[in-house]
Amino acid sequence: MYEHLKIEERGAIAILTISAPKSLNALNSAILGELGDYLDNFDSNRFRCLVLTGDGEKSFVAGADISEMAALNAAQGEAFGRRGADVFRRLETLPCPVIAAVNGFALGGGCELAMACDIRICSDNAKFGQPEVGLGIIPGFSGTVRLARLIGQGMAKMLIYSGRAIKSDEALRIGLVQAVVPQAELMDRALELANQIAANAPLAVQAAKLCINVEYDMDAENAIAFESKAFGSCFATDDQKQGMRAFLEKGKCEFQGK
Ligand code: CO8
Fold first, then answer.
1. Best of 22, 23, 102 to mutate for ligand 1, by most ligand atoms within 8 A of CB?
2. Taking the chain, what is the end-to-end CA distance rounded to the nearest angstrom?
3. From the alpha carbon of 165, which atom of ligand 1 is closest?
4. Class of 5-198 per CATH?
5. pLDDT confidence of 1, banded at 50, 70, 90?
6. 25: alpha, beta or left, given left = phi > 0 and alpha = psi -120 to 50?
7. CATH number 1.10.12.10 is the correct assignment for the domain at 202-248
8. Does 243 contact ligand 1 (Cβ within 6 A)?
9. What is the pLDDT of residues 171-196, one digit of tens each?
10. Is 128 in the pocket of ligand 1 (CB under 6 A)?
11. CA 197 to the chain's CA centroid
12. Is the CB of 27 under 6 A from ligand 1?
């Protein structure tokens, strides 16, 4: 149904693969459109985790499509940047968690896409970077926003100003990724984590995601109040009743997401 997206469902886990092998999965308008459509129709009641990856063993996403950007004027550049940023924001605010399984190059828009996911696991051959200033532009899919938030301003400025790409071990050291695994194990390890997430109470997982995302932009007082309210709302769910009963009876709970 999509030209550049491959979709797989494994129980409560959805796997989305960006596939444009000729350009190392670079993001053009068509792919952004498909990604936006997929996210708009994503059923967070049915799926408990989304794993996002790139096709092949070389590249996650090698950036926005340079051939499409080359002739843009300022207004068109802004519109293209806005379009990508909107799609990435939809990914970031998807109710259920998203794991980026980064299988190779995550450059420019590819690094920005990975950063819009909740958790990043990468293969040992992965490379991250924001090379945009070497093309006469800046990261335009929210990279200046998210990179600084994820790894701190100093490190973000060093990477963005220099355009330097870093290997997986350095990405782990600076906190850009949460785990590095051998390439052959990448999907298994991502799915293992996805299954751990999926075994937990889905409404509680969603509430935790919402809290962490929303509270980041709040002052401490409002953030704490927001968390208290979300915490309280968990007690209105069957999952909380059943989860706590199962614990007290030393049983296991199959959460229903109600
Ligand atoms: N866009 C378009 N085509 C690409 C891209 C890209 N980002 N990346 C790779 N390709 C194409 C190559 O042109 C090549 O095509 P062809 O076979 O027709 O010549 C094919 O993919 C294979 O690539 P290479 O032959 O270059 O493969 P290598 O293994 O030699 O190198 C690299 C791999 C290092 C990944 C190299 O391809 C590269 O440097 N790519 C560009 C990386 C980059 O600069 N990315 C950032 C792009 S800018 C961006 O993402 C901005 C996001 C914000 C946009 C805001 C809108 C205004």
1. 23
2. 31
3. 34
4. alpha beta
5. confident
6. left
7. yes
8. no
9. 999 999 999 999 999 999 999 999 99
10. no
11. 15
12. no
